[in-house]
């Protein structure tokens, strides 16, 4: 442990796991535990469980687990030290001055400092009209005001391979750190750094705390190549976990967020007074992004391109967003324009009206079905009916189902009761299918335990016995000495179990009882989940010494079978005998 135990105890005491998690997940009390929908995988029935007694959480769906620090690490995308700092801030505690390994944090700080300096440099280049002021010309061509340019920290990357590099070097940064921050690339030939963004208008990307974490660069219309290039993932940036403009939108005071496809749409909306716009960062919309948005907003309006790719992306986004419980509406801008173009042509007021009329996800899907078929013909009507029954079957709210069934009935002339009847039947069969799917996922988890301990597949019997021993140690520390005298870490056949055994040894020899928190620095949530699973898989009612002896015997038998001689618990004579016996056995086989 790099932090003192007193400090960590106070940290955990002041950040009760159920309290911290409940600001991210809606938790319902269930006996002495709490249950909710897992923030780390998509699910419809809660399998995410919080245990206040042991200060831990575990998801039966995706097998992630850990303590409060692990939870913050995962959900806020932080490393261990940062997660501790986050919780210390939350509880109003001061971080200890030193005594912990902060090399990763230092690295992140360096990358953030490089990013900040780079953003300043690009902004200066824009304002100082580098390369004949083409950057500024571009932005004023897009009707951006000076105020907007400043608010978003926009910039210009000069047409040069080393201007940024030289600038950063003059500020004392090393080339390898510039490459790490991904503002420079590494030359294959020379191994030296060169500017990654050249002759581009630049969009810095901020995190929720206002740090510059990445950049998007847009080419000029006359140039070749991809329209945008973006920073790759770095120590401070994960594309799938961030949204452009969320740092501003989260303070807009609005309950609704507008999701756009890119930088320019987001900026144009903010300039027109829609401070609640965010951009999807060019990737397909992810569950992490959906969760992030649902934390700050009750409703989302998805704006999208009218083309086929846009429609597809929107449908996907709807499915992902649905799992978060956020209210969804879809805005199709007239004439296939993007919001930026629309506002320029018709003004913010018209866009606001459009926004207010945005269809909810049911209307959007019904309209999509209707546009596909010619409902003037009987054949088209039938196809439309079938498609809309499918849409209505996915609606969980009964009133909404009724409402839209009336509409479809009006459009097709088929009685509403007939439509609702079919919808009901389809819902039943969908439910059955979903239940079946959940059950198979439950018994055959997608993330099999073997991800964490791949050796367990090879040595099933030994792994099972090892896990028994580990569970004994976690539950009955009074037997630690008994186990340690008979079994060494090297006797273990599977590597994860061995590692866990050594860690438990350290904890128990120090006279402490096992707590999941002791492992939360060295293990990730998948590994911690596995530890919790092992701990809960076994309960012992009979003679524990007997269990231990039986399990140790299984482990040694398995090793014997494999011809592995373990010297740890033998005296020299026994060891020699075992060696001789093995040599004889081998001869006998030939
Ligand atoms: Zn889960």
Shape from CA axes?
globular
Ligands bound to this protein structure: zinc ion
Q: Please state roughly what percent of the residues sit in beta strands, choosing from under 5%, 5-15%, 15-25%, 25-35%, 35-45% or over 45%.
A: 5-15%
Number of strands: 16
| Count of domain modules | 5
Q: What's the CATH architecture name of the largest domain?
A: Orthogonal Bundle
Structural class: alpha+beta
Query: Major β-sheet, in short?
Result: 5 strands, antiparallel
Gyration radius (Cα, Å) is 30 Å
Count of alpha/pi helices: 26
Describe this structure in words.
There is one protein chain. Helices cover 52% and strands 11% of the residues. The protein has 590 residues and is of the alpha+beta class. The chain has five domains: 5-91, Alpha-Beta Complex (DNA Primase, Chain A); 104-236, Alpha-Beta Complex (DNA primase DNAg catalytic core, N-terminal domain), CATH 3.90.980; 246-357, Dna Topoisomerase Vi A Subunit, Chain: A, domain 2, CATH 3.40.1360.10; 367-443, no CATH class; 450-589, DNAb Helicase, Chain A, CATH 1.10.860.10. The protein has a five-stranded antiparallel sheet with strand order 1-2-3-4-5. Strands 13-12-14-15-16 form a five-stranded mixed sheet. The radius of gyration is 30 Å and the shape is globular. The relative contact order is 0.07. Mean pLDDT is 87; it is low at 442-447. Zinc ion (ZN) is lined by residues 38, 40-41, 48, 59, 61-62, 64.
């Amino acid at each position: 442990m790099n932090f003192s135990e007193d400090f960590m105890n106070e940290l955990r005491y002041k950040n009760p796991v159920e309290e911290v998690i409940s600001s991210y997940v809606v938790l319902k009390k269930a006996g002495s535990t709490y249950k909710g929908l897992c923030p780390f995988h998509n699910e419809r029935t809660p399998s995410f469980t919080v245990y206040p007694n042991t200060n831990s959480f575990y998801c039966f769906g995706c097998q992630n687990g850990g303590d409060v620090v692990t939870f913050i690490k995962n959900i806020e995308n932080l490393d261990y030290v940062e997660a501790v700092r986050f919780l210390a801030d939350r509880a109003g505690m001061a971080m200890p001055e030193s005594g912990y390994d902060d090399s990763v944090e230092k690295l992140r700080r360096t990358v953030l400092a490089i990013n900040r300096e780079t953003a300043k440099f690009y902004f200066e280049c824009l304002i100082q009209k580098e390369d004949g002021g083409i950057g500024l010309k571009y932005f004023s061509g897009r009707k951006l005001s000076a105020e907007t340019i400043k608010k978003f920290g926009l910039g210009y990357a000069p047409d040069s391979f080393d201007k940024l590099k030289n600038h950063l070097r003059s500020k004392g940064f090393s080339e390898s750190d510039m490459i790490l921050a991904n503002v420079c690339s590494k030359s294959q030939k020379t191994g030296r750094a060169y500017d990654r963004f050249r002759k581009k208008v630049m969009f810095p990307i901020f995190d929720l705390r206002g740090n510059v974490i990445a950049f998007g660069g847009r080419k000029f219309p006359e140039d070749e190549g991809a329209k945008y290039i973006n920073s790759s993932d770095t120590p401070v940036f994960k594309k799938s976990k961030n949204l452009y403009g969320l740092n501003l939108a989260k303070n807009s005071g609005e309950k609704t967020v507008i999701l756009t496809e890119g930088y320019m749409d987001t900026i144009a909306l903010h300039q027109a007074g829609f401070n609640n716009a965010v951009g999807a960062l060019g990737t397909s919309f992810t569950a992490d992004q959906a969760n992030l948005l649902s934390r700050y907003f009750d409703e989302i309006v998805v704006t999208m391109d009218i083309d086929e790719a846009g429609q597809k992306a929107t449908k996907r986004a709807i499915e992902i967003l649905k799992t978060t419980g956020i209210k969804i509406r879809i805005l199709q801008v007239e004439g296939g324009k993007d919001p930026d173009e629309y506002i320029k042509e018709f003004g913010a007021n018209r866009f606001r009206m459009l926004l207010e009329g945005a269809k909810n996800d049911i209307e959007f899907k019904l309209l999509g079905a209707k546009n596909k078929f010619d409902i003037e013909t009987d054949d088209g009507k039938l196809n439309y009916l079938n498609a809309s029954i499918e849409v209505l079957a996915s609606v969980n709210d009964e009133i909404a189902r009724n409402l839209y069934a009336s509409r479809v009935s009006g459009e097709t002339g088929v009685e509403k009761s007939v439509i609702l009847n079919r919808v009901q039947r389809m819902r039943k069969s969908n439910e059955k299918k979903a239940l079946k799917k959940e059950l198979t996922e439950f018994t055959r988890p997608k993330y099999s335990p073997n991800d964490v301990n791949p050796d367990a597949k090879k040595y099933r019997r030994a792994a099972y016995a090892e896990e028994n021993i580990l569970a004994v140690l976690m539950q009955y520390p009074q037997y630690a000495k008994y186990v340690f005298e008979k079994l060494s870490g090297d006797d273990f056949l599977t590597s994860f179990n061995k590692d866990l055994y050594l860690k438990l040894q350290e904890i128990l020899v120090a006279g402490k009882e096992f707590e999941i928190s002791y492992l939360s620095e060295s293990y990730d949530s998948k590994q911690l989940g596995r530890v919790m699973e092992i701990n809960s898989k076994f309960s012992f009612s009979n003679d524990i010494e007997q269990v231990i002896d039986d399990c140790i015997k299984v482990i040694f038998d398995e090793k014997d079978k494999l011809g592995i001689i373990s010297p740890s618990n033998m005296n020299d004579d026994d060891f020699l005998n075992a060696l001789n016996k093995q040599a004889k056995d081998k001869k006998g086989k030939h």
